[in-house]
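Progress against Task 2.4 (sequence-to-structure conversion) is shown through the following example record, which the project officer requested during the mid-term review.
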Amino acid sequence: MHQPAITQLASADPEIAGLVEAEAERQYAKIRLIASENYVSQAVLEATGTVLTNKYSEGYAGKRYYEGQQLIDPIETLAIDRAKVVFGVDHANVQPYSGSPANLAIYLAFLQPGDTVMGMALPAGGHLTHGWSVSATGKWFRSVAYGVRKDTGRVDMDEVRELALAERPKLMFCGGTAIPRTIDFPAFAAIANEVGAVLAADIAHIAGLIAGGAHPSPVGHAPVISTTTHKTLRGPRGAMLMSDADHAKALDKAVFPGLQGGPHNHTTAAIAVALGEASKPEFSTYAHNVVANASALAEALTARGFDLVSGGTDNHLILIDLTNKGIAGKPAAKALDNAGIELNYNTVPFDPRKPFDPSGLRLGTGAITTRGLTVDHMPKLAEWIDTVVTNAGDEAVLKRTAGEIRDLLAGYPMPGWG
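Structure tokens generated for the chain above:
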């Protein structure tokens, strides 16, 4: 059953409680490979469900617009101080509701409508909020996009420099949502400095790896950093902005009163708990294990003939181009879900297919590492993925695989279910 127990919810609203219990069991029974998901600790779950959700706290610690902040201010201050220690930054703002509003605050802080922003193209692995056309950031600002080389699947920093010199952006983003390789923060910083742009590093996917020392940090290179607090950081659904001292005031004003009202205090408390966990030695071990698992899984998938974008991974994320397997990403993802393996279909660079029916799969090892799976499990996981992709229409194969996965996972506890 769900842990902590939801007995009051079950009594007051059994329909919702039943769905929550079913979702907890689903998360327990499946190999969860969605790169942006994870399992939070029971302590984070408990913090998220506290009476802090009852309290309005517009403003910042010591400068609120509502009374009764005697206990809220220390909670937010703790979250800020822990973020500064974990990431080694001058300043942190823990109030953004999620990653997209956090990124929008960067625009509000440093740009005027119509100014030029430069970010990675969405089909190449970037994020909607880095200036892509369907996003408000692409509609309200002049956007130019860089991509990856077709032959390597990697960013060519010489091409990025040429584009930046030609377009002269005021804001540059590095980072994205489907990047399997190490981000070269020093190279991006050199280009941003050359053209006079503010460099923003979006580390939403790799924040936990950075906190655990398993990926280079943008601190000292990018003066502005945005991140979500879930994914590899294993916190609640929320976001943070971090910066050097020179950019702090503009960012704080952009978050409040520029974009948001009162922060979600229960989320702030859970962020503080997660950051406390991230400061411990065992979190560093976890972060390095995430990378080791991804590397082992990539190697095992390659051995089975899967075409990996860029040829592999340096972090938690693997991007597969299924073209050579004769199946598109969407039917493959649905078959894998039915077989007990949860991931998402995804575009790949230079994808000839449409975004809602793309050629690729995106997967990550954050959640399975939290469950305790190791490099020894990765060859079997690759075998299951291969079997399902090859037999996507065979319900008997899918059912058998789901049973094998449930049997394996029974030996690996899940926070939030027991």
